Amino acid sequence: MRTIEFCIPSLAFIFGLLLTIHLVQPVQDWVLGVEIFGSVLFFPHAVRVLTAWLYGWKSIFLLMPGVTLGHYMLLGLPGFTSGAAIGIIAGLVIVPLTFECFKRCGFDFFATAMHVPKFTPVFLIGSFSSLFNAAIFNGFTGGQPFATLIFVIGDIGGLFVVCLILMFIMRRQRTTGDSQSGVAG
C-alpha cells in the first residue's frame, strides 16, 4: 500500500469532520434556531463505513491517525480520557466487525465480494454499526437518550448523503463512459 493510499482515509475523515463542524452544524443551528450537541449529517461515519467496506480490518489502522487528530481538534488534550479511548477504539472496530458478522452469516458485503458496487448493503451495515456504536457509547458514558438519538440520526444521515453523492458520481461516469464508447464504436 502506497503512502497516499494510507493517508486518504484519515484525510477524508478530517475533511468530513471539518465539513460537519463548520458547514452542517452552523446551518443546522440556524435552521432549528437552537444549538444542539450533534449533527443531523455526520460525514465521518460515512468515511468509517466506506473505508471498512473497501479495506476491512485494515480500516482501523488507516483511520486511527485521522480519528485521533479529529478528537484532538474537537476536545483538545483534556478530551483524551480512558472513556474517550474506549470510544475511539469502539468507533474504529464496530464497522469492520459489523461487516464481518454479516459475512459470517452468509452476507459478504465487503467491496472485494461485489462485482458491481452496491450502496444498499453498505448503507445497511452503516446503519447497524451506528446503532451498535450508540449502544456502546450509551453504556460507557451513561449518555442521554436524546443525544444518542441525534448521533444515530447524524451517522445514518451523513452516510445516506455520501452514498447518494457517490451513486450519482458513479452513474455519471458510467453514462459518460457509455456515450464515449458509443461514439468510438
Structure notes:
With about 180 residues, the protein is mostly helical. The protein has one domain. The protein has six helices and no strands. It has helices at about 5-30, 45-55, 60-75, 80-105, 120-140, 145-185. The longest helix is centred in the last third of the chain and has 40 residues, at about 145-185. The chain is globular. The mean pLDDT is about 90.
Counted up, domains total 1
* Biggest beta sheet attributes: none
End-to-end CA span: 36 Å
Choose one word for the global shape. Answer: globular
In short:
The protein has 185 residues and is mainly α. 79% of the residues lie in helices and 0% in strands. Helix 2 (43-55) packs antiparallel against helix 3 (59-75).
Overview features:
185 residues, 6 helices
Write the topology of this structure.
Elements lengths: L2 H30 L10 H13 L3 H17 L6 H23 L14 H23 L3 H40 L1
